[in-house]
Amino acid sequence: MGNGEDQHPPAASAPTLDAALLALITQCHNAILPGERLTLAIGAAHVGYIAPALATALGSFVTIERHTATIDPAEAHRLNPIATSLAAQFGYRTRGEDFDVRHAPDSPVLTQLDRGALPAFGVIGQGVHLNGYVRRADGIHLWIARRSATKKLDPGKLDNIVGGGVSAGMTPFETLLKEAAEEAAMPATLAARATETARIAYDMERPEGLRRDVLYCYDLELPDDFTPQAADGEVEAFILMPAAALPAIMTAGDAVKFNVNLVLIDFLLRHGVIDDLTGALRRALGVS
């Protein structure tokens, strides 16, 4: 019992709820790779997937052989400016925020790429998500953010109290502290108490392209007297919700940001708010 998780008996979970939660997970694993795409490599390191038309547009920057488009490592620094020049042609918008390009989350950095180009190039994007919760007599409550209506992706949807992409040169924990201050006006001394609980990865076809995301999930028990404040305009409001109410909200429609569903399901399982008698939810999450 020394794992820090709640030890109360798990709540009952109806088969229909299990199926609905499972559907939220499997929708994030809908990409078939490589499919019609070419593998994108920097030297011998596989870093992404690109459509044949994009491979053609890259011209002599890549060498195409056996369904793989390979970039010379000595020329990899040119990837970002080339991707920026192709944005209008291939329907993505650069965001002025670079991400590190790697073969795998913990492997060496090979170059950088603008965040807005990641889906077009099928490059891994890393992000952090914080479950900020409060214990009360009637159970656990979670602080949930409502995304600003002006957000380009998933405007107005429910989100974690803190979340954000890991920019080039930053670690997930550094990103967590930065985003906690910017999004929720959370002091660094409080945010630093967060504990990493899981990594969740998925490959998903989205309107913006191929999302190959790795989410670093953190838990933070918050004091009763802390109320998050929308600090940077990305959040419309914060709502303190009973954790037991979240499964119905998540499965009733499209109210929650697609990948936040995965983070919340993992949290609810670990804290015994929902059960998983068959193990199907945990297997589908593939948490590491």
| Secondary structure: number of strands | 13
The amount of beta strand, in percent, is 25-35%
How many helices? The count is 10
What's the assembly state of these chains? single chain
Shape: globular
In whole angstroms, the N-to-C terminal distance is 20 Å
Order of helices and strands: HEEHEEHHEEHEEEEHHEEEHHH
> What is the CATH top level name of the largest domain?
Alpha Beta
**Helical content (DSSP H or I, runs of 4+):** 25-40%
CATH topology grouping of the largest domain: Nucleoside Triphosphate Pyrophosphohydrolase
CATH architecture of the largest domain: Alpha-Beta Complex
Any descriptors?
288 residues, alpha+beta, Nucleoside Triphosphate Pyrophosphohydrolase, 4-stranded mixed beta sheet, 10 helices, disordered N terminus
Description:
- This protein is α+β, with helices and mostly antiparallel strands.
- It has two domains: 38-120, Transcription Regulator spoIIAA (2-Layer Sandwich), CATH 3.30.750; 125-285, Alpha-Beta Complex (Nucleoside Triphosphate Pyrophosphohydrolase).
- It has ten helices and 13 strands.
- Strands 7, 8, 9, 10, 11, 12 and 13 form a seven-stranded mixed β-sheet that branches. Strands 2-1-4-3 form a four-stranded mixed β-sheet.
- α1 crosses α8 (246-252).
- The two termini are 20 Å apart.
